[in-house]
Design brief:
alpha+beta, ten-stranded mixed beta sheet, 14 helices, transmembrane helix, Inositol 1,4,5-trisphosphate receptor-interacting protein, nucleus
């Protein structure tokens, strides 16, 4: 009996050690053939039988040495019971193997069931657009006129008012700053949907980037991720800003290259001088004990400077100015006595070399979902190039082209859906990226005003495919087919493409929420457009999309 228990334990241990889930094979996606499984089980059975015979012989020899007087009786009894014992333990071994094999099959089915559920959801999403029938061009034109063209008309008036006040506020900011110690603020640059004429929602918030430079004799040394040989995925799209003296050469001093010994001291880089330098760097908004610019300190400095600037010029205006968001450097809100409010954003940035790429301290939360890994990592924004590319490509498109109308309609539909089901990780920045890719790939003639419905469907199809693949590439990074007239730095064009949907690979909950929101938006598209367009009188169609039925 003990020998039998030992053999069963040996069988179980052997099965566990040789189990495929304990040491899985690489790249195995198909279950093993049934005949191969049976053949392997027969081979294992034969090996176990041989091991059993060896164990029986060893036990018999031990019993012979310890009890020679009863050897004949035990041998005869063992001989009489061996066939039955062997059949019992063989059957038990087969049962153990079968149970383990059934458990393995159930485990794999349970594991793959989770992935199957996700694949089923993706397949449903892939079929969702096929079942969506968009309204005709006339209905879309009515919808655009009713809901979006009024917003487009208000953009210019709102933009003119905010621009004048922003310039006055920044001029006051320069006057209250210490030019020998504080950062120097340059002229603001308008970017985003308000300056690209596709804003679809109120409030009509203008976005400005405000370049700044360090005081003399300091300068910025810029470090971009695309210039490094190896970079982690979470650092892609980011860079760091190092502050140096303009006449400083970190490799020019001999103390950096040679060991001076205990009796020699570098007067430029002594420990005392280093401590003073670190203290000065902190005053220059650097991260503690480093030379890298800290975006959090920049935000604090910028908010304090704006507060001082407003206190200086507030007597000139008959409205109040407050911070709209405290976690953004310059999210401001103007409130008139009548109760009307106007919002706008001033965001400090650092220019990358002599280009129009900028390191931005805090990217608007409505544009990108992921934040930087630390306060010394700054995101690179191509907002100026985005505006310039839209202006450049618009000159090659037919008159009254529909590219901005498509983007406005899609942004409106997505915004309405998010107001119903909650915000998702899909943003207007992603929608604009889809439009930019299609502007580059489709012929210019396809963007005529009569093709509004077809192009809107193309944008939905492109977005759907990107969501299925969890891959939407940044338009400028890694794009080697951009016009030379734009002046994009070559290092960004040669860099590896930057996937804006990378977070969906790691965060399944965010991906599921985004898929659900997009799916619901597709189902509600026709009803929502018809609901807003039905109140427009027949024949009252804007010339932008007027066409024969």
């Amino acid at each position: 009996m003990p020998a039998g228990i030992f053999r069963v334990c040996l069988v179980v241990i052997t099965a566990i050690v040789n189990h495929p889930l304990l040491f899985p094979k690489e790249n195995v996606t198909v279950l093993e053939n049934t005949q191969e499984v049976i053949q392997k089980m027969k081979e294992r059975e034969e090996n176990l039988r041989l091991e059993q015979l060896k164990l029986e012989q060893e036990i018999a020899m031990q019993e012979t040495l310890t009890k020679p007087s009863v050897k004949a009786a035990e041998t005869e009894e063992q001989y009489n019971h061996n066939p039955l014992s062997w059949n019992f333990w063989t059957a038990l071994s087969m049962v153990v193997f079968l149970l383990i094999e059934f458990w393995r099959q159930d485990y794999k089915e349970g594991t793959w069931q989770n992935y199957a559920n996700e694949e089923d959801e993706i397949s449903v999403l892939g079929k969702a657009l096929k079942g969506v029938v968009l309204p005709d061009n006339a209905t879309l034109a009515n919808f655009y006129e009713k809901c979006l063209q009024i917003v487009t008309g208000d953009i210019a008036r709102n933009r003119e008012l905010v621009e004048g006040f922003a310039d006055d506020l920044l001029e006051a900011l320069r006057s209250v700053c210490n030019r020998d110690a504080d950062m120097e603020v340059e002229e603001s640059i308008g970017v985003g949907s308000m300056y690209e004429n596709w804003r679809a929602h109120k409030p009509l918030a203008c976005d400005f980037i405000v370049p700044f430079t360090p005081p003399e004799p300091y300068c910025f040394q810029l470090e971009s991720w695309c210039l490094e040989e190896t970079v982690s995925p979470d650092k892609q799209g980011y860079g760091m800003i190092k502050i140096l003296r303009a006449d400083e050469n970190s490799t020019g001093c001999i103390c950096d290259k040679t060991k001076l010994g205990e009796d020699l001291l570098c007067l430029l880089h002594s420990k005392m001088n280093q401590a003073r330098q670190n203290q000065h760097m902190e005053d220059l908004l650097c991260y503690k004990d480093t030379r890298y610019l800290d975006s959090d300190q920049v935000m604090t400095w910028f908010q304090l400077a704006l507060t001082k600037a407003w206190n200086k010029i507030s007597h000139k205006y008959e409205f109040n100015l407050t911070f709209n968001l405290l976690d953004a450097p310059g999210a401001l809100k103007i409130k008139f006595r009548s109760g009307k409010t106007i919002t706008f954003n001033l965001t400090p940035v650092v220019q990358y070399a002599d280009s129009d790429v900028y390191f931005i301290s805090h990217f608007p939360c409505s544009s990108l979902a992921e934040g930087p890994s630390s306060s010394i990592h700054w995101l690179l924004t191509f907002a100026v190039y985005e505006k310039r590319y839209i202006q450049f490509i618009s000159k090659t498109l037919p008159a009254n082209s529909c590219h901005l109308s498509c983007l406005q309609i899609l942004s409106f539909l997505h915004g309405k859906q998010c107001s119903l089901t909650g915000a998702s990780s899909l943003t207007n920045y992603h929608l604009k990226t889809v439009m930019l890719h299609l502007l580059q790939t489709l012929p210019c003639a396809d963007w005529a005003s009569t093709q509004l419905r077809a192009r809107l469907q193309d944008m939905l199809r492109f977005l759907e495919k990107s969501l299925q693949e969890k891959r939407l590439y940044h338009f400028f990074v890694g794009n080697r087919h951009l016009p030379e007239e734009l002046g994009i730095p070559i290092e960004f064009q040669k860099a590896e493409p930057l996937n804006l949907f990378r977070r969906f690979v790691l965060q399944r909950d965010a991906y599921r929420k985004t898929m659900d929101t997009f799916h619901e938006m597709l189902k509600n598209t026709a009803a929502l457009i018809n609901e807003y367009a039905m109140h427009v009188p027949n024949g009252r169609v804007t010339s932008l999309h007027k066409e024969p039925l």
